[in-house]
Amino acid sequence: MAAKIEDMETRIEALMDVMRVPPGKKINLKKDYDPGFTGKWMTKAEAKETLARGIQMLAEMQDKLWAQNQYAVLMNLQALDAAGKDGTIKHVMSGVNPQGVDVHSFKGPSSEEMDHDYLWRNFKALPSRGRIGIFNRSYYEEVLVVRVHPEFLASQQLPPKLKDKRIWRRRFEEINNFEKYLVDNGIIVIKLFLYVSKEAQKERFLKRTQLPEKNWKFSAADIKERAHWDDYIAAYEDMFNHTSTEWAPWYIVPADHKWFTRLAVAAVLYYTMEKLNLAYPTVSEEQKQALIAAKEELEREDGGPKDKAVVKAEEEEDADPQDPASNGEVPKDESKKKSKKKGSKNR
Known about the structure:
By secondary structure, this protein is α/β, with parallel strands linked by helices. The chain has a single domain, classed as Rossmann fold, CATH 3.40.50.300. The protein contains 16 helices and 5 strands. Strands 2-3-1-4-5 form a 5-stranded parallel β-sheet, sandwiched between helices.
């Protein structure tokens, strides 16, 4: 088992290197990352087995995160339509305690949210210590969809002089500072982009139109956004190059194969939380004495600890009269055997 765990650790390290956007280095999304990548070092069957084991390990980590109550984990999920964000959340978080996880899906801002700065609604939804928070789309929409659609920026209640060409650089800097503030206060930021190819997106859109059980997922707006594919890719690329930092790096997760996407997301979550050295709180000597006192008090509720004679008497009283072994009786056949042995010895 130890060898298997060590092997899994090595594989996770290798996968992180493939997906991580190196801070300070400019990347080319189309050339440097493959949405169809699955890695030759793991088959689909192995991936499913590894994910099942990983989900159990994540559940243990979450339990320690809750008990330790020092860190919180914020997972930002960004993607183009049909990349599989909802399914990924469902599968990867299937083993954790739902009481310790908060999921927020950020749609277009409300009128109240428009009257605040763009980070306000996300700030309100941050996870408290001991919890995992998941943002299904996040404040990064402000440098993606708002950039691709200038009309959204025009409708924001900002002074005209702030809607200049430098607004995206300023927002990159503001987001980096915001995330540095979070990490410095024990809120660990994990950023994942589920990278689906245009071909795979088309196949999934077609399924939504053809399969009755998937019709509800279809939206005409998705087709309109698909027409802006190149603009989104350019916006994402610029965002990665300016916001993948040492304290909150981006991970570009291949999303053409859902089984691999789920494994990769679980791997990033495990890899990040494992470095926090999570542990259950140490019980002090005073707490140990309190536990002993509580145990003694509970035992006194029924007249005090039972001695061995009382326990034995109760066991005999509860014995099944139909079961010779439970009431101490020896079966007749066994009795005869013992008699023969006894007789042969006396002779």
